[in-house]
Amino acid sequence: MSLFDWFANRRKAGPISEDRQEREIADGLWTKCEECGVLTYTKDLRANQWVCGECHHHHRIFSDERIRQLIDAQTWQPLDTHIQPKDPLGFKDRKAYGDRLRDTQTKTQLTDAVQTGLGLLDGLPVALGVMDFRFMGGSMGSVVGEKLTRLIEQGTRDRRPVIIICASGGARMQEGMLSLMQMAKISGALQQHQAARLLYLPVLTHPTTGGVTASFAMLGDIILAEPKATIGFAGRRVVEQTLREKLPDDFQTAEYLRDHGFVDLIVPRTQLKATLAQLIRLHQPRTAPALGLEASETEWANGLSSNAAAPIAVD
Predict the structure, then answer these.
(1) Is the pLDDT of residue 39 over 50?
(2) Are 104 and 159 in contact (CB under 8 A)?
(3) pTM of the predicted model as reported, rounded to 2 decimal places
(4) Facing residues of 166 across strands?
């Protein structure tokens, strides 16, 4: 029997059913990279924090995965999960805002576009906020502003560094001016946090735009970003029309902003937790070596001055 006849007989025996094909290639078993097209075993991709092993493309991830990557196991304490969005303007476009909120909450299992909480990052206590682009493009409404403000205030009371993972299309138009006021509210809380000489680290991910960029995303002591993240205020077309000139191809990328002084450090996702931990340790209050007590920079300097002025006993 020829090879052709053997294949023909197998085909007559019956085609492979769709159910059998689905069993052979399980849904979600492999993930195709959006950048280079390489297929990667999903389990391996998740172990590498959703960064392509071939081209190092950072796949988009969401708040639950971010928390799992950054916060030590069994230490996450969510804050303000009860706060629910409202529809004060009775806004309606193609769909009523209230209906859109309910549908998005059902789909994402989130109350709004940010999760906040306390936890340990490599053993260090932090206050962490993580924006989620799945929820109406990570848009900043009243709930996002309120939860982030409360998070920062809690961090100030507990003297914890604050970290916010930014991912947003900007202000939420369905809440009008109420959404824009969140920029000032969060910025005011950050000013109090920084007046207490406490650390604030924003991490700009793809994309970070609009009112988030115009407020708390750019108010960090050290501003970090993921590679190739889109970061900006207005869209590229709007900026070009306003300036009436062609912009560079890499305009509004993390690398362009770093080169022009708007971003301090670009950190691959696989190194983010270690980098954040290192920055926090470098900015912790100094400890008086003899007494083992925490001291502010002023107290430490005063102690050095008084010791320098004291007479040295010589036997």
Answers:
(1) yes
(2) no
(3) 0.82
(4) 204
